[in-house]
Amino acid sequence: MKELFPAKQVMGFVFSLILTVIALLVYYTDMSFAVGMTILLVTAFIQAFLQLVVFMHAGESKEGTAIYTNILYGVIIAVVTVFGSLLILIWDM
Amino acid sequence: MEFFQRFAIPHPSPAIYASMVAIALVSIAIVVGLTYFKKWGYLWHEWFTTVDHKKIGIMYLISALLMLFRGGADAIMMRAQLATPEAKLLDAQHYNEIFTTHGVVMILFMAMPFIFAFMNLIVPLQIGARDVAFPRLNALSFWLFFAGAMLFNISFVIGGSPDAGWTSYFPLAGNDFSTSVGTNYYMLAIQISGIGSLMTGINFCTTILKMRAPGMTLMKMPMFTWSAFIANIIVVFAFPVLTVALLMGTADRLFGANFFTTANGGMDMLWANFFWVWGHPEVYILILPAFGLYSEIISTFSGRNLYGYKSMVWSMVLISLLSFLVWTHHFFTMGQGALTNSIFSITTMAIAVPTGVKIFNWLFTMWKGKIRFTVPMLYSIGFIPLFTIGGVTGVMLAMSAADYQYHNTMFLVAHFHNTIIPGVVFAMLAGLTYYWPKFFGFILNEKIGKLTFWLLTVGFVLAFFPMYITGLDGQARRMYTYSEATGFGPLNMVSFVGAALMAIGFVTIVYNIYYSFKNSPRNIGSDPWDARSLEWATHTPVPEYNFARVPQISSSQTFWDSKKNGHALFKGEIEDIHMPNKSGVPFVMGIIFFIVGFSFVFALWVPAVIALIGVFVCMTLRSFEQDHGYHIHVKEIKETEAKYGEVLNSEDRPRTTTRV
């Protein structure tokens, strides 16, 4: 019976609910923009990773490495694009 | 009547009216001709509904050639206008429209379909697959591209062409400064064909990762397949940026959004930023498959395997990453600080390193090789020095401080034509000549081909090298005329002569196809060039299932091994082959997308909404469709194979190699 119980998924579900609640608190409590934004960004990235690993089963098939390489490549390009744009248009303009 | 006034041309001229009449007459002639010769059924069953990668590739090829002539006509008009000071051939507005459409047509509707044509034709054959991973999606990609291309091309007779440059910078491209529907055409047409490109990217990444023949590890893939793979990865990562930017631009123009305006918190520079986040990787999407074609051709006609296979692969991987790190070099003068410009200067110069590695690898492939000077090889040999000059001027432009001098001058125009024409256009023509026999069963005439090559090369040098000089002297790009006192006149006349030679060169290609169709011998066997990679290991023309038996791979030039080193390419018995069914849905969706695009351009919301619903209906129907494909049975395969009258085997393959 123990093997049949999807402990990982249930834990993941509970954890994703907790993350959502934390993110919601930013709206309901009074805090500075910087703090609120930091909380939102951190919870968002953990949430996305959680969904990918637990519910979208990244890494469970034999193409696991390919999937993570792909995600890493995507993240690098996204980060470069976002921070590059910020550098060009705001920080160094 | 008032309703129809929106379709009128804002800046009419006799030339445009003449084109309208010509388009109408040609369309009528095509319809009448097809009906008279009873070809509608043939067209529908063999081409419009096909999901065969070879036929889709040929349709891409024909579209690309058509667009080459459309863009070429624009080019020759521009050069004619600039040939003499203060010429009156075109006015400022028409000149703006022509350089805009020239850029868009050449990059997005000529070069892109050309590389997609070669990917479609070659990649499944090179990896020993029956088709691409998602054949119907592939057809949809083509029809979306075609719908986008046609939407863009009707702009100059209905409603007016876009006139804000192929980069379409805001605020110029906003409603305040671009009042005609031209820029709407730009946004919608590129959006539609861009969705097609993105699907092609996903399709080919999957195909190359999942459908390689047994034994073909990643590092045993032929070089063209590698280049197509890397290019498609860039497509998948770069095109979404364009999609979003175009969506925001469309929202600005049609729905009064303020993403790129100069008021209400909008930022016009953001468009330039987004455009080049996509735009710079885009040039590598074009050049990498071209590099792949050159690799195949140089190794075949040097009679040697490709020098430095691994370094070729790694340099392409590095180029793909670096291509995302350099976009700011397109707008060094926009106003950002020295720090930013320095960072992007360095990343830009860094790209010269992997590119240089590739140049040396090609040179070393030819080193001590037994070179056959065929037409494809001539293009490849011409490419190396000419492209290197373009690369060197690129490094000049990469120095951000010096760029203030070059920016927006003809120097830049000379530079990027110097990389794109010998880099991409020569590769496409080399590939066209090289792969022509595989798909059409005869070789293009070598004599006329060589004439074409020399006309294009001499024409290219005459047309673009003078621009380096006038550019450094301060001739601005995109200016429709100049005064005699500037002294730009004589060099611009030389450019015009060069452009005219190139135009003649392109006409000789058409003549060559006609001449060779009439006169070339048809008994050329399946391997006319004595080539090395897998696409030559099947019959000519290629049967619909590509390979009767799945090939067994030993190295990156497994076909050469089977010819010279006794590698057994095909083993085992012929079995039933599973093939995808034809479908008319992609064609219908292409038409629906065309209607969506056209309705959005003119803000006709009722047809736009109805057509968009049509798109979702097509997608829903597909979701509920049970389509398991069909099987070609052993008996049928054996009959087809027997018809070719040659046995494809490692020992006794036909030796009808044409030595040119």
From TrEMBL, chain A:
<dbReference type="InterPro" id="IPR005171">
    <property type="entry name" value="Cyt_c_oxidase_su4_prok"/>
</dbReference>
<comment type="function">
    <text>Catalyzes quinol oxidation with the concomitant reduction of oxygen to water.</text>
</comment>
<dbReference type="GO" id="GO:0015078">
    <property type="term" value="F:proton transmembrane transporter activity"/>
</dbReference>
<dbReference type="GO" id="GO:0042773">
    <property type="term" value="P:ATP synthesis coupled electron transport"/>
</dbReference>
<dbReference type="GO" id="GO:0019646">
    <property type="term" value="P:aerobic electron transport chain"/>
</dbReference>
<feature type="transmembrane region" description="Helical">
    <location>
        <begin position="67"/>
        <end position="91"/>
    </location>
</feature>
<dbReference type="GO" id="GO:0009486">
    <property type="term" value="F:cytochrome bo3 ubiquinol oxidase activity"/>
</dbReference>
<protein>
    <recommendedName>
        <fullName>Quinol oxidase subunit 4</fullName>
        <ecNumber>1.10.3.-</ecNumber>
    </recommendedName>
</protein>
<keyword id="KW-1003">Cell membrane</keyword>
<comment type="similarity">
    <text>Belongs to the cytochrome c oxidase bacterial subunit 4 family.</text>
</comment>
<keyword id="KW-0560">Oxidoreductase</keyword>
<dbReference type="GO" id="GO:0009319">
    <property type="term" value="C:cytochrome o ubiquinol oxidase complex"/>
</dbReference>
<dbReference type="GO" id="GO:0016682">
    <property type="term" value="F:oxidoreductase activity, acting on diphenols and related substances as donors, oxygen as acceptor"/>
</dbReference>
<dbReference type="InterPro" id="IPR014250">
    <property type="entry name" value="QoxD"/>
</dbReference>
<dbReference type="GO" id="GO:0015990">
    <property type="term" value="P:electron transport coupled proton transport"/>
</dbReference>
<keyword id="KW-0472">Membrane</keyword>
<feature type="transmembrane region" description="Helical">
    <location>
        <begin position="34"/>
        <end position="55"/>
    </location>
</feature>
<feature type="transmembrane region" description="Helical">
    <location>
        <begin position="12"/>
        <end position="28"/>
    </location>
</feature>
<dbReference type="GO" id="GO:0005886">
    <property type="term" value="C:plasma membrane"/>
</dbReference>
<dbReference type="InterPro" id="IPR050968">
    <property type="entry name" value="Cytochrome_c_oxidase_bac_sub4"/>
</dbReference>
<dbReference type="Pfam" id="PF03626">
    <property type="entry name" value="COX4_pro"/>
</dbReference>
<keyword id="KW-1133">Transmembrane helix</keyword>
TrEMBL record, chain B:
<feature type="domain" description="Cytochrome oxidase subunit I profile">
    <location>
        <begin position="38"/>
        <end position="554"/>
    </location>
</feature>
<feature type="transmembrane region" description="Helical">
    <location>
        <begin position="419"/>
        <end position="436"/>
    </location>
</feature>
<feature type="transmembrane region" description="Helical">
    <location>
        <begin position="58"/>
        <end position="78"/>
    </location>
</feature>
<dbReference type="GO" id="GO:0005886">
    <property type="term" value="C:plasma membrane"/>
</dbReference>
<keyword id="KW-0472">Membrane</keyword>
<keyword id="KW-0349">Heme</keyword>
<dbReference type="InterPro" id="IPR014233">
    <property type="entry name" value="QoxB"/>
</dbReference>
<feature type="transmembrane region" description="Helical">
    <location>
        <begin position="15"/>
        <end position="37"/>
    </location>
</feature>
<comment type="pathway">
    <text>Energy metabolism; oxidative phosphorylation.</text>
</comment>
<dbReference type="GO" id="GO:0006119">
    <property type="term" value="P:oxidative phosphorylation"/>
</dbReference>
<dbReference type="InterPro" id="IPR023615">
    <property type="entry name" value="Cyt_c_Oxase_su1_BS"/>
</dbReference>
<comment type="similarity">
    <text>Belongs to the heme-copper respiratory oxidase family.</text>
</comment>
<keyword id="KW-1133">Transmembrane helix</keyword>
<protein>
    <recommendedName>
        <fullName>Quinol oxidase subunit 1</fullName>
        <ecNumber>1.10.3.-</ecNumber>
    </recommendedName>
</protein>
<keyword id="KW-0408">Iron</keyword>
<dbReference type="GO" id="GO:0004129">
    <property type="term" value="F:cytochrome-c oxidase activity"/>
</dbReference>
<dbReference type="InterPro" id="IPR000883">
    <property type="entry name" value="Cyt_C_Oxase_1"/>
</dbReference>
<keyword id="KW-0249">Electron transport</keyword>
<feature type="transmembrane region" description="Helical">
    <location>
        <begin position="185"/>
        <end position="209"/>
    </location>
</feature>
<feature type="transmembrane region" description="Helical">
    <location>
        <begin position="229"/>
        <end position="249"/>
    </location>
</feature>
<feature type="transmembrane region" description="Helical">
    <location>
        <begin position="343"/>
        <end position="364"/>
    </location>
</feature>
<feature type="transmembrane region" description="Helical">
    <location>
        <begin position="587"/>
        <end position="617"/>
    </location>
</feature>
